Amino acid sequence: MTGLERDNGIVVDFVSDSVSGNYPYFLSSYAFFTKSSVGRRYPESFHPYRSAFQRDRDRIIHCAAFRRLSEKMQVFTAEFGSYHRTRLTHTMEVVCIARTVGRVLGLNEDLIEAAALLHDIGHPPFGHCGESVLNSLVAEVGGFDHNLQALRIVEKLERRYVGFPGLNLSRELLDGQAYKVSKSGTPLLEIQVVDVADSVAYDTHDVDDAMEVGLLNTDQLMQTALWKRSADRIRERWTNLNEVEFRQAVVHDLIDVQVSDILVTTRKRLIDAGIETAEDALKLSVLVAPGSEIAEQKGEMELFLLEHVYRHPKVMLFRNRITGWISGIFEYYIANTDELPERYDGVLKQDNKRRAVADFIADMTDRSARLNAFKKGN
Length: 378
Ligand code: MG
Description:
Blueprint: E1 4-5, E2 11-12, H1 52-61, H2 64-68, H3 87-105, H4 109-118, H5 127-137, H6 146-157, H7 171-182, H8 189-212, H9 218-221, H10 225-237, H11 243-272, H12 278-282, H13 292-310, H14 313-335, H15 345-350, H16 353-363, H17 366-375
Antiparallel strand pairs: 1-2
Helix pairs in contact: 1-4, 3-4, 3-8, 3-11, 4-7, 4-8, 5-14, 5-16, 6-7, 8-11, 8-13, 10-11, 14-16, 14-17
The structure holds magnesium ion.
């Protein structure tokens, strides 16, 4: 069966059994096959019943940096209530969307899952605000970047295994994370899927969260084409929805529109480019992406969010406080490196004082950073 018209008007023509929802899951020829993996820096024997990427997934989930995501903010601090996403729940939304896209395209879902779980593990406390403060504090020793920090964590800072530092992840995951820093070359299709899923997740849930905390309303959002399109469709389909029901229906539709569009356009690009193997895709530019219309509408939505949410006076107020907290903790530990936990001794010796303090602060959750800031009298 082909040519299934979804209720959002986008034709998904390549899922053979979407009606039942139980479509068979086969790897496409252009998927990255686990047996092609370059392997790990420190060679290990194969696991009897988990693939290499399943094992990577488990190592990521079991590491301390991953657990800390539960107390790290995405956009809103705890002052804004308890509805909004944390860095951990954002990560889980990215995993869901990425696995869905990957499964429909017949890509390696284990690799996708592990890469999605990994993608935000390097975030310091207080999201991008915490990151920009840390970046300026360590500018003279190379700056701070959450994507690079993820690599430091999984290659060096986590100490969980007897035989090696870090998590000894498969090379494909490290390369995928390194691409997020360099943006040079073309990553595996599986890594492209995670990138695109990240964007679907935050463009959508930041709208939902901002509405819940009262920073945005429906009238404002109707200025954006992406919201308007879904809102119009929901109004056509349902009448008498209350405000919250309406918002939630539109938010669900926003995800559906974006994901369906990615599937249709990506599939077409793969066919048009004659992609047959994972290597073929590496020779071209990024293929897993929304079509031009949705891409443009997402760009408009992101500018809208920047202006109305990320730079909202209430959000900026916390940014100022956060800057003070992080700078205060940083200066305190620069002056008192003997108070750093022992696990940073290696960084102090091999790198420098500023990097060791940045690693220590980056490890903190929002709450532990606050407690530290107050302890140090800020
Ligand atoms: Mg993310």
